[in-house]
Amino acid sequence: MTTVKLIALDMDGTLLNEDDIITDFTKNAIKDALEKGVHVVLSTGRWLGNSYPYAEELGLTSYLITVNGGQIWTMDKELVEEHLLETKKLEQMHYLAREMGVDSWMVATDGVFRNILPNDYLERKWLKFGCHTDDADKLEKIIQELSHDDTLELTNSMPNNIEVNPIGVHKASALRKVCAKLGFSMENVLACGDSLNDMKMIQEAGIGVAMGNAQEAIKNAADYVTDHHNHDGVGKAIAKFVL
Fold first, then answer.
1. Inter-CA distances, 46 with 65, 70, 100, 182, Å
2. Catalytic residue numbers, as ranges
3. Which of 67, 78, 147, 233 might form a disulfide with 74, Cβ 3.0–4.6 angstroms?
4. Would you list the DSSP string of 111-179?
5. Rg of the chain's alpha carbons, rounded to an integer?
6. Beta bridge partners of 130
7. 9 within 8 A of 15, measured Cβ to Cβ
8. Sites in the chain below the pLDDT cut of 50
9. Measured between alpha carbons, how far is 42 from 137 in angstroms, rounded to an integer?
10. What DSSP assignment string belongs to 92-127?
């Protein structure tokens, strides 16, 4: 049986329910895991600004992985590592999304911009690009267009979006580095997620857990499928494998 020394948690569709809340059951499971000396790390597509408050709420003391592995932070908000998108690539993706008539968002080191590039975009540092549409044909065309560029890492955080980081930047690569700093391997990780941006960490973790609401590909890759994110799936997985 794998000894779990670190729990890696995606946020949206995983740790958070549909109201963006961590339930008391799951909070208590995380608290009990922390008291056993297990590290708990949020591993999210979100940027620091809208993920850190949840880490603080949970009383986490280890690291924080944001923008799909684009940044690793300490809980003292010290930046451990950062991987930037080329500004020219970001600009091209923004105009592609605009041309296709889909919503987009661009994550800079200092904030998130939706559908518009700020006037000073050339002076900013960029971490991630994302776009969203319920039109499956448009989504497929964008994926095909971006797939020709071997400098980009394509995933999603929902079936109707695309998220783009520099190639090789993903949650698993960031988790490997966190594990190395803490003195153990991915074999000692329990990872929970629901979308393609969680795939690699679920595949590489000692115990990969898919949420009951996860995309089918994630369920197929996981070692275990827990309950839905609205029904304490994370808390139940922690209770089963850690407590």
1. 9, 10, 24, 23
2. 10
3. 78
4. EEEES---TTGGGS-EEEEEEE-S-HHHHHHHHHHHHT-TTEEEE-SSTTEEEEEETT-SHHHHHHHHH
5. 17
6. 105, 163
7. yes
8. none
9. 33
10. HHHHHHHHHT-EEEEEETTEEEES---TTGGGS-EE
What six digits make up the tokens of 5? 């020394």
What is the token pair recorded at 7? 């729990």
Place of tokens 């994110």: 229
**How far apart, in whole angstroms, are the C-alpha atoms of residue 18 and residue 139?**
24
Confidence (pLDDT) at 2: 79
Which tokens sit at 214? 């996860």
Range 105-112, long-range pairs (CB < 8 A, 24+ positions): 105/129, 105/130, 105/131, 105/132, 106/130, 107/47, 107/67, 107/70, 109/71, 109/82, 111/47, 111/49, 112/47, 112/49
| Rounded Cα–Cα distance for residues 240 and 71 (Å) | 30
